[in-house]
Fold this sequence. Notes:
The chain has six helices and 25 strands. It has helices at 10-25, 32-38, 57-61, 74-90, 134-140, 258-263; strands at residues 41-50, 71-73, 94-103, 108-117, 121-129, 148-157, 165-173, 175-184, 193-204, 206-212, 215-220, 226-237, 243-256, 274-287, 298-309, 318-332, 335-346, 358-359, 374-375, 378-396, 408-424, 431-432, 440-452, 456-465, 470-475. The two termini are 42 Å apart. The protein folds into two domains: 10-116, membrane protein fhac (Ubiquitin-like (UB roll)), CATH 3.10.20; 121-475, Beta Barrel (Porin), CATH 2.40.160.50. The strands form four sheets. Strands 5-6-7-8-9-12-13-14-15-16-17-20-21-23-24-25 form a 16-stranded antiparallel beta sheet. A four-stranded mixed beta sheet has the order 2-1-4-3. With 480 residues, the chain is mainly beta.
Amino acid sequence: MIDIKVKKGLKGGIILFLLLIFSLNGFGQNTSVEDSLGSVAINVGKIYITGNKKTKAEIILRELDFVEGQQISAREFSQSIVLSQQKLINTRLFVIAEVVPLFMSDTQVDILIRLQERWYIFPLPIFKLADRNFTEWWVNQKRDFSRVNYGVQLYHFNLTGYNDKLIFRSQFGFTKQYELQYQRPYINKSQTLGLTLRTSFANNKTVATNTDGHRLQFEQSDDINRRIFSSSGTLTYRPSFYSRHSIDAGFSRASVSELITNANPNYFQNGEQLQKYFRLSYVYSWDNRDYFAYPLSGNLFRGEVSNYGLGIFNDLNMFSVRGSTSNFFDLGGKLYLANSLEGYYNFSDEIPYMLRSGFGYKPDFIRGYERYVVESKAFVSNRSEFKYKFLSGIQELNRRSLIDQFRTMPYAFYLKAFVDMGYAGEAIRSTTNNFYNKELMYSAGLGLDIVTYYDFVVRFEFSVNRERQTGFFVNFMSAL
């Protein structure tokens, strides 16, 4: 326990009351009261942290908008309290993160950071569909249970207390895969550089080799028809709270059987059965969303340039760019608006089928067209939704639980209406009957989003597209 004595000065109490009012009602009002608050200088004293049984203090302090000994205006201080709390939640280390100002005098304030850590170790079974989405499996593949992956995986978040993550996966079924990944967000003293290392091996007996009518066509046999080995490393630079630069370098080696090349000589370039290449990518992002898993306010910009080949092997030479901007608005009264605009362009005219991109492949989709894939070297999309939070709270599960992290469950329910639009350019080789390419695609619909424990999001959506095709779809991550 930390023993903190708070001096209850009249002026300090008034300031604290006004700060709480402005924290709840926003900071956009140009009033004389707000102006007078802005002229008050507050000195940040000690910062106390409770509840971090494993997480290192420097990881927590890195996310705060203030430091000990800083002098800050009252208005900026009230804003920094809210933003610091959001950023602590966005580390995904804590179930609860509260930033509490403790006024010791008229102008002196200490800070109490009150945390409840998540459960960090998850040995989980693998049981998931191998197809692009639930609709692909349910409709196009006729609920074929041979197209299921199963196995075991271990997620160890916050492995050493520095918000680092270890992932091991051993998977069988439709795709046999072994994967190992380690991520450390900060490797230097100033906490600006991070590193991620990963390696994986996978093989398949069933492989998608062509696209006809925007439906994937598969080849299969009792033998292994594709093997893929990949290894990569990512160096990140985070100079500020919201901006991030990443450089990713990797190597991939893939081989396919004669069955695959006979079905599609352009699966790799030049009809080869073996493809090796190095990849180099640069990504810049500016992200000040309130909560990453399900944002309700703020914005995100992301730009990426990638080159496959690097001239080391003659198997591949492909350069692409990608950009997106997403904006989220809290309209008040539990109403929210969100919009996302994304674009992609591949400068190569020789795109092997294995490295195709387009609508229907993550992260690109148009709701209402979940049954289809629309491959192209260039496409653009826009997704918008308007939603209302009609229910939220925290459900107490078990007071007597020995594990604090599983005593309560937060939840929120959102009703929404959405409109999506997209346009894909000329189709790539290895595709036929491409009636959606070079045509405007659009859809509208209604849905229900449920957000709950450990960033879990489930979407129930009913949509109708341009061709008046209707459908009910279930997905397990936020659409924007």
